[in-house]
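Instructor's aside before we start: the two examples that follow are unrelated to each other. I chose them only because their records fit on one page, so don't look for a connection. First example below.
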Amino acid sequence: MDNLDVTVLRALAEWRRSGQRALLATVVRTWGSSPRPEGSIMALCENGAVMGSVSGGCIEDDLIARFTRAWVGEGDDAASVGGPPVFAKYGVTADEAHRFGLPCGGTLELLIEFDPDAETLAELLAALEAGKLMQRSVRLPDGAVVQRPAATPATLLADAGQVVNTFGPEYRMLIIGAGQMSEYLATMALFSGFAVTVCDPREEYRSSWSVAGARVVSDMPDDVVSAMRPDRRTCVVALTHDPKLDDLALLQALETEAFYVGGIGSRRNNAARRARLKEHFDQTDESLARLRGPIGIYIGSKTPPEIAVSVMAEVLAVKNGVALPRDMEVAQAKQVREGMA
């Protein structure tokens, strides 16, 4: 599954390329609680097709009703379509917040762009698919769009003259090992918007891989890590239990900006891994500080799918900057339970 923004932009580009009218809605401001963060996008086609989301659903329904009528010359918005961007605010009053399914006190404002240029969208998509971070600026008086590479990720900027949104590059997950648990983790990562690469030099594991959408490679894991050049939107998860495959790849990943680096295994196995890395590769507690293990959050998981859920939950928490309490860490939780036994 593609990154959500890419999916929205691709659908919008296809609608415009085929000659259909369409709009792009972007969340530009929120007050109080809001279902979707600033920068979230949604595309709406004149035939009522929708891709993406700006709320829990009720606002999307209102946009469909308003603008499918406007495109045929009906309703208060008929004069707006085809012109410069306009703003739409939802949830200003308690009644509106209730009507549109917004949390109590929640308000959001959208920028509505009409009939974005297909070629400009295609250029943006090509850059994103090439792994580039892109900045898209919309000039409010006339809707002119300027797109340029960006140096770092940034939050949406909105002022009196323009709205600037930054897209990409997509989040990536490298899974070392093509076993059963990897299939569950890859599936969840894909529907969470990650581009997934699975690395396993063992033919007997690769031959039975069944998750569509994940790229499967046969090179040695440390070589794959080196070739991927993990950045701040990349996580590396080792799931083979085989030191020959996991250890060097984890070491290589720790030398990158990967936001998450971890290996599967029990508390004893993870302690043994750390001891090996210190003894044979001159590692220290400081150099291994970012190495996670046992990975996952403690949910009492026993089966491969449950363990994969716990790992994916930890990856997403780290991605989203959420500090997990120590009693949710696998090692800490098991120590507490053993002490209570």
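Example two begins here.
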Amino acid sequence: MIRRIHSGGPFEEKIGYCRAVVVDGWVHVSGTVGQGDTVTAQCQSALDVIGAALSKAGAGFKDVVRVHYYLPDASDFEACWPILSETFGAHPPAATMIEAALIDPKYRIEIEVTAKLP
């Protein structure tokens, strides 16, 4: 069985995707951007949206096993480290940071996660 989780974000309908897909005990959360004027505000906002999707799926950040971070400017990443460390705490996932252009130049970070249902 496949379960799709929608967050109501504007790009979901425009592009044709959903925030997360739950299948075979795994939660695949789409790349998520956040709102705000700074990379740290956008990071926290994106994590809030991801956290809500994980919760709807029956998981949490402690269940995340893989995370990808995409930033147009890799030098912005270090400012996010304290937020990410606090979010994942004692359960850090495997992680990759990639420097890449995002869907709109106003976005400074996009985060994508995979979690295993508890």
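The chain has one domain: 2-116.
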